[in-house]
Amino acid sequence: MEQSISVQNITKNYGSFRAVDQLTFDVYRGEIFAMLGPNGAGKSTTIRMILDILRPDSGKILVLGQHIDDEVKNRIGYLPEERGLYRDVKVIDMMTYLGTLKGMSRQAAHKRSMALLEQLELAENANSKVKELSKGMQQKVQFAVTILHDPELIIVDEPFSGLDPVNTQLIKAMLLNLKDQGVSVVMSTHQMYQVEEMADRLLMINRGKQALYGAVDEVRRKYALHAIVVEGQGEWQTLPGVDYIKKENNSRNGQILYLKPDATPDAVLAAIAQSPNHHITRFEMAIPSLNDIFIQVAGERFEDVEAEYAQKEKTNV
Amino acid sequence: MSKILLIARREYLYNLKRPAFLFAAFGTPVIILSLWLLVFLVLAPQDEPDITEFGYVDLADIISPDLSLPQTISYTFIPFADEASAMRALEAETIGAYFVIPPGYADFDALAAAQENRASLDEVEFGQVQMVSYGDEPDDLIRVFNQFLVWHSSHQFGIDGMVGERISDPVEMIVELKDTGRELSLDALPVLFLLPMFLAVIFWIATQTTSGFLMNGLVEEKKNRIMEIIITTITPMQLLMGKIIGLGLLGLTQMAVWIGLVFVFLILGPQFESLAFLESIPLPFDVILVGIVYFALGYFLSGSILSAIGVLASSEQQSNQYAALVNLPGYLIPLFLLTEFIRDSNSTLSTVLSLIPITAPVSMTIRVGLGAVPLWQIALGVLLLLLTIFVATWGSSKVFRWGLLLYGKKITPREIIQVIRGRAG
Fold first, then answer.
1. What's the start-to-end Cα distance of chain B, in Å?
2. Torsion angle, alpha carbons of A248, A251, A254, A255, to 10
């Protein structure tokens, strides 16, 4: 498969702190690739090295088949985690300017900006100054800037943070649509459910090192519990094959049914279907949370790593 | 290259429309010129007396009333028989002032006797002419009355008035500076070092404005975090060059406005009688040319240093202080040592100052104004400036690249040196 990004053995130190340690992975053309990890794990550093904002101390990075240069940069769209726009400028002027910097003609940049604003339901705000927009609108403008020049590769850092559910859905649909058009999307996030919904493959990083790398479906299979989640009515404990029951976290009525080693989810479903005393409104495989998988592969808790990082940031400043 | 131009274009157009720039570029010179014009055109005419007639009481019998006088004696002098009648005329404002020429004025025997005692004319205590007025007489009245007296005294001895004038004021000076071939009258000499001062002041204001924009722009882009988008689109070096060029052109625009207004002032000024002296001010174009080249290079030098500082500074205020710190020495050092340039514009100290890139713009412009500077020195100065600009830009772009992503961290000078030497970042 054609690679959009090929990262080989990159390492990056900040003084004595090793931010990225021997990381190797590929991003394929036309896939959504998720980078996961707690804050301070090295996701942003890795993205910055891919984009040539930072240089790795060792290792090699190829982007769109070559070492990054001006021409390649024009084919990448980047949404930084730290969002930023010129505040005192009209939305359409700023978009046009950034488009020309990406090698578009003024007319093309203007036309495409208007089309995107239309799509994002911001056409009316084209002539407003950026600082007059709400935070969510600014986020959408920022996303429009990212895909303005029809990039072949999009790198988005926490694309949904700060967006309301409606706009999250809008951006998500646009990203999936771009994927269908053959655009490669690299998405850095710490929201596991977004990864499950959208990503084809994932890379989990902890303390600069690779913790987990592979197709999302494989990972799900590998780390799926031998359990199912159900909602509905009935005495779940009485079903054949069920070992014990736990209430699902963060859910009103969900129950996790842990199965006996020889039982299968299909058999349990069949038993429910035949039982007049059981009714289900939800039936699915039990997927461990990000935390659970993280603890399994990293041997420590996600929150602990983030707290430690926040503490370190504080003493650094 | 085209990306550099895009950045330059954006920086130029964006900042051109800013009120801060419009005020600095147009407001300040217009205010200064208006104040000048106000002083010259509105206030000055009030001092101008309507009276062009003045009296004299000739007790020495030296004035011949029917002597024909040259036109340069522009006032009319009316004889009065005695002081009392002259006083009445003064009180009635028919004359603006009167002179009393005492009997001893033309006592040449007494003068000769005084000379025997080796007294100079200042020590002779008789025959002084007295002027009586309300203190509102025109400034040139005494000069004109002097001329009037010279013509009449000359006539007494049968000498032509013009000859008398030459005897009484023998030197009419035109200074020709042999080394530059520049010819000027003595009154214009101050122009030669006032002009570099003037250029220094407007360059100072222009660089302060534009380097302020440069640094504030960088601080703002860092604060807004748009920096990350920009530098994943272009290289830090392109951003740096684009900004310096765009804002440099902005500075030049400001200068062009100022210099243009001065030209307008010099050309239109002499139309008004009270500003007629402006016509005699010579404009040494060599000074202006060297000045513009040197100051433009000086701007690029400070621009490249300041952009590195701007990217490390965490607030607009902080960056403005740095801008002044970086720009000041280049102006202050030559101005403190101004006497050295006037004493000998080709001394070792003057020469060294005009070659050191930081002090070169002001120093070289002053030197070219004051004397001949060998062409090779002008060329060497430009070369050294270019070289320093190159090194500074190179070092800055490294610091720039590294500093772009530092948000609100404290930076030690040691770290900066490490970055320039390629050991960090």
1. 26
2. 20
Q: How many CB atoms lie within 10 A of CB B234?
A: 21
pLDDT, one tens digit per residue, over A223-282 is: 878 888 899 888 888 888 888 888 887 777 888 888 888 888 898 899 898 988 888 999
Asked if residues B326 and B302 have their Cβ atoms less than 8 Å apart, the reply is yes
- Structure confidence at residue B425 (pLDDT): 42
Q: Rounded distance, CA A262 to CA A254, Å?
A: 23
Of B292, B314, B316, give the one whose Cα is nearest residue B365. B292
Nearest-CB residue to B232 (from A73, A83, A89): A73
Of B7, B227, B409, the CB nearest to A84: B227
Q: What number of C-beta contacts closer than 8 Å exist between A and B?
A: 61
Chain A's closest residue to B406, CA to CA, is A317
Taking the mean position of all CA atoms in its chain, how far away is CA B154?
A: 42
A55 contacts B224? CB cut-off 8 A: no
Count of CB atoms situated within 10 Å of the CB of A273:
9
Q: What is the CATH number of domain B53-172?
A: 3.40.1710
What is the rounded CA–CA span in Å between residue B10 and residue B16? 10
What is the identity of the amino acid at A184? Answer: S
**Whether the Cβ atoms of residue A175 and residue A185 lie closer than 8 Å to each other:** yes
Task: List the single range of A271-285, B221-235, B295-309 with lowest mean pLDDT.
Answer: B221-235
User: What is the helix, strand, coil percentage profile of chain A, to 5?
Assistant: 40, 30, 30
Q: What is the pLDDT of residues A17-56, one digit of tens each?
A: 888 999 999 999 999 999 988 877 888 889 989 988 888 9
Instruction: Quickly list H helices, chain A.
Output: 43-50, 70-73, 91-101, 106-119, 135-147, 165-180, 192-198, 216-223, 265-274, 290-298, 302-316
Residues 6+ apart with CB under 8 A from B4: B238, B241, B242, B245
**Residue B86 contacts A where some CB pair is shorter than 8 Å:** no
In tens, the pLDDT along B127-178 reads: 888 899 888 788 788 888 888 888 888 888 888 888 888 888 777 666 666 5
Mutation pick from B226, B241, B316 vs chain A, by most beta carbons of A within 10 Å, is B226
Residues pairing with A279 in the sheet: A233
Q: Is the pLDDT of residue B181 over 80?
A: no
Domain boundaries, chain B: 2-29+185-420, 53-172
Token pair belonging to A171: 């951006």
| Alpha helix positions (H), B225-284 | 227-231, 236-268
**B227 has a chain A CB within 8 A of its CB:** yes
Strands (E), A37-170: 58-63, 76-79, 153-157
Contact with chain A for residue B425, Cβ under 8 A: yes
ipTM over 0.95? The verdict is: no
Domains along the sequence of chain A with CATH: 3-220 (3.40.50.300), 225-285 (3.30.70)
The answer to whether the CB atoms of A83 and B232 lie below 8 A apart is: no
Beta bridge pairs of residue B383 = none
- B270-298 per-position pLDDT tens digit: 666 656 666 666 666 777 788 888 888 88
Distance from CA of A94 to the nearest CA of B (A): 10
Which of B224, B232, B424 is nearest residue A53 as measured by Cβ atoms?
Answer: B232
B14–A317 C-beta distance less than 8 A: no
Closest among B378, B377, B370, B379 to B180, alpha carbons compared: B370
CA distance A247 to chain B (A): 44
What is the helix (H) or strand (E) element at residue B51, kind and residue range?
none
Query: What is the Cα–Cα distance from A97 to A91, expressed in whole angstroms?
Result: 10
